[in-house]
Amino acid sequence: MSDQAPSFERDIRPLFRDKDRQRMEWAFDLWNQADVADNADLILERLEDGDMPCDGGWSDEQIGLFRTWKDAGTPP
Fold first, then answer.
1. Which own/partner pairs from 9-16 qualify as long-range (CB within 8 Å, at least 24 positions apart)?
2. pLDDT of 74 strictly over 70
3. What mean pLDDT, rounded, does the chain reach?
4. For the chain, N or C: smaller number of CB within 10 Å?
5. Rounded CA gap, 10 and 24, in Å?
6. pLDDT at position 4, please?
7. Three-state SS at 57
8. Helices H / strands E in the chain, number of each
9. 62-66-69-70 Cα dihedral, nearest 10 degrees
10. Helix, coil or strand: residue 60
């Protein structure tokens, strides 16, 4: 793993599929760094509970990547 902190554009945005984005449009845009950063705590909670995405949870590695990004200050 790289010593470089994860970035939204490179590492986080690709985790969200088009259908994930469409299902969450009513609340916020999963492809928008500011929207995801503003909701990072809630998103992480839902990911850890396995409630998001609605058709199956992320792997522990993907959740860990999101957590690392959030803990690093949600860089773009």
1. 9/33, 9/76, 11/65, 11/69, 12/36, 12/65, 12/66, 12/69, 15/58, 15/62, 15/65, 15/66
2. yes
3. 94
4. N
5. 21
6. 86
7. coil
8. 4, 0
9. -160
10. helix
**Long-range Cβ pairs for the range 43-51 (8 Å, 24+):** 44/70
Q: What tokens were used for 56?
A: 């199956």
CA 58/CA 13 separation, integer angstroms: 14
Take residue 57 and report the two structure tokens written for it. Answer: 């949870």
Residues 6 or more apart whose CB falls under 8 angstroms from that of 34 comprise none
The dihedral through the CA atoms of 75, 19, 24, 51 has a sign that is negative
